[in-house]
Amino acid sequence: MDEKKVMLSGIQPSGDLHLGNYLGAIKNWVERTDEFDNYYFMADLHTITVRQNPADLRRRTLEQLAQYIACGLDPEKNTLFIQSHVHQHAELGWVLNCYTMFGELSRMTQFKDKSAKHKENINGGLFTYPCLMAADILLYQPDFVPVGEDQKQHVELTRNVAQRFNGLYGDVFKIPEPYIPKAGARIMGLTTPDSKMSKSIPDGCVFLMEKPEDIQRKFKRAITDSDTENCVRYDPANKPGVANLMSIYSAVTGKTFEEIEAEFAGCGYGKFKPAVGDAVVETLRPIREEATRILADKAYLESVYKAGAEKASYVANKTLRKVYKKVGFVAR
Question: Is-catalytic flag, 311?
Fold first, then answer.
C-alpha cells in the first residue's frame, strides 16, 4: 500500500477561533483526515512575538485543542499537539536562523505589518519567526502545507532555506509544496467585507464558542450594500457585503449561489441576513456543545496533547538528528 502524503498546519492560540478559521481551514482539514498523514498544532511559540497574558494563552491553547476535536479532527487519525511541547521546533528554528539571510527576512510582509501594529515591541522573534515557521514545516518532511494567500510567502522562504541547506549538505529536507485548498471559503468580516474575518475586529467576527443570540445580532448588523437594490445577488465587485454573506450561507448549507439567489428572490436583506445567522448558529451549535464537554474532561484533553506531542517528537527527532549530524554537532 502506498504511504500517505504528509500534511501539516498550525494556528496561533492568540485569540479565539472564528468562523473564518473553521470554514477556510479546519473544515478542509477534517475532509482530508483519511487522505493524508496529518499534523495539526497549536502554534503557541509563535504567539509570544506579541505580548500575551499568560493565563489567557494557557486557556486559549487548550480551548483551541478542544475545538479542533469538536470540529471533527479525530485525535486517533490526526496528530494534534502543542508546539512548545515538542522542543525540536525551537532547536531546528535556531539552526535555520543561521541559514536564512537577513535580506530574505526583511522582505517578509507580515513583519512589516506587525511592526507597524506593535511599534513598542519590535523584537527579534518578530523578525526571525519565519525561521521557526520553516522549522515547524521541515521537521515533519511534509509533502504539502495548506496555506492561504497571506502565507504563501512563508512557504516560499521555507522552500528556499531547505534548498540552500540541501545544496550544502545533501538531501536532508523534503521540499514542501504549498497546498491551496480547492473549496476553502474565503470569509470576510461582517463589518469589513473588503478584508478577511479577523479576531482583531470582534464586531465583524463570529467566534466558534459564541452564544447564538450574539451570532444572530452580528448577522443582523452585517454590512450589505450602499445601493437601494436590496436584492440577494452574487456580485463581489459591486456588492461585497452580500457576496460575503452568500459565501458563508453556501459554505454552511452546501447550496450554490444560484440556489441562494432563487431562495431569496424578492425577499430583501431583512429576511436574508437572519437566515444566514440561523444557518451559522445551527452549524456551530454542535461544535460549541462538544468543545464545552471536552474542556470539562481535563484528563482526556491532557491524554490527547501528550500522545500527540510524543508522536510528533518521535518524527521530528529523526529530522533534527540528521540536521545536527550534517552541521557537525557531536552526537548526544
Answer: no
The answer to whether residues 115 and 87 belong to one domain is yes
SS (H, E, C) the chain: CCCCEEEEEEECCCCCCEHHHHHHHHHHHHHCCCCEEEEEEECHHHHCCCCCCHHHHHHHHHHHHHHHHHCCCCCCCEEEEEHHHCCHHHHHHHHHHCCCCHHHHHCCHHHHHHHHHCHHHCCHHHHHHHHHHHHHHHCCCCCEEECCHHHHHHHHHHHHHHHHHHHHHCCCCCCCEEECCCCCCCCECCCCCCCECCCCCHHHCCECCCCHHHHHHHHHCCCCCCCCCCCCCCCCCCCHHHHHHHHHHHHHHCCCHHHHHHHCCCCCHHHHHHHHHHHHHHHHHHHHHHHHHHHHCHHHHHHHHHHHHHHHHHHHHHHHHHHHHHHCCCCC
Give residue-wise pLDDT tens across range 290-312: 999 999 999 999 999 999 999 99
What's the whole-number mean pLDDT along residues 182-197? 82
pTM: 0.88
User: 5, 77, 112, 114: which is the annotated catalytic residue?
Assistant: 114
Let me know whether 32 and 173 are in one domain. Answer: yes
Give the pLDDT confidence score for residue 150 in this predicted structure: 65
- Give the mean pLDDT of 219-229: 81
Indicate whether 193 belongs to any domain.
Answer: no
Write the pLDDT tens digit of every residue in 235-249: 888 889 999 999 999
Catalytically annotated residue among 5, 174, 199, 322: 199
Band the pLDDT of 181: cuts 50, 70, 90: low
One of 5, 174, 196, 326 is an active-site residue; which one? 196
Annotation says 114 is catalytic: yes
Q: Are residues 149 and 42 in the same domain?
A: yes
